[in-house]
């Protein structure tokens, strides 16, 4: 244990670690605040003047305006919202809400807009996926709102996974287990979760930058020759270095995640975390989680992704002769899932983004985006939802790459 704490002290006393930790804390606070700055609302006051609100004022205004819509999303509330929308547009002789006179949308439609989320999507054509306008929907059909949503997930999966009955059945079983009625608590938007993902990506890079020189720097400077001549200079030293890096990375990542979530949820309002995932993303999203649960699950999953990436980075460090080459290869591996999603076709990119350690917090490929998507890894009659496959891969990769790093360092021949 003494070696472990000495290694932790060595890492924490380095200038680069101190700078990155301060930068990570600053990013946690800044990224939690940025989604609030994008919020804006306009309304016409009693004097006929248009007033624009931004930031926290806008969040408070919309939450107050939509207070009647908050709570359970029952078929009766959805039907009443659609009827109100249709009656409002007919009274002004228009067919789309953007054709309404100034101030009408904010006064008439915005109070019920949370309940209209996903209505057009649920009634999309099962063959083409084209959604109708709300004016084309028969409100009486909304008496069977949740049955219509189940029909939609069936038609969507038939389009998304036409060659896999197993994936279609798994998706249907998952959606049937989603708690209903849904919950909606206005205030928060998807930008908050996107920025949590961005924080995860930055933290991934920071952790990799700290871990990359762990062994390669000793090779480069010659200090490793001295370490190897000591009592605990081979396998024991490798175990201590890997353990310290992974412990520090996990505590660092989780600490910044807590700072981010406390700040973001305090700004938007803690009641918003009760909102069902389906009321912020697709109405037929598969997991039965609230937004708060998604935030926590993502933080935990991203931690595993970072640990798997750090474990791989330590292995890379044992195989490189210089700190710079170890850092370059490690950063390339961090970017590889995003590159795969952007450049490779279909299932190949899905498999790579799922199995690569850095696939949990990428810009284009991440656990968050996998949860809100409908991708499955399929092999014959087997179909696995990609977020579950990601978690399984990272749990296996953490000890695998750590073992490979220990083995490689123990067998390393100086010179």
Automatic annotation (TrEMBL):
Alphabetical keyword list: Membrane, Transmembrane, Transmembrane helix
Superkingdom of this protein's organism: Bacteria
Record field: transmembrane: 198-217, 238-261, 296-316, 323-344, 350-370, 382-406
Name this protein carries in UniProt: Uncharacterized protein
Organism: Faecalibaculum rodentium
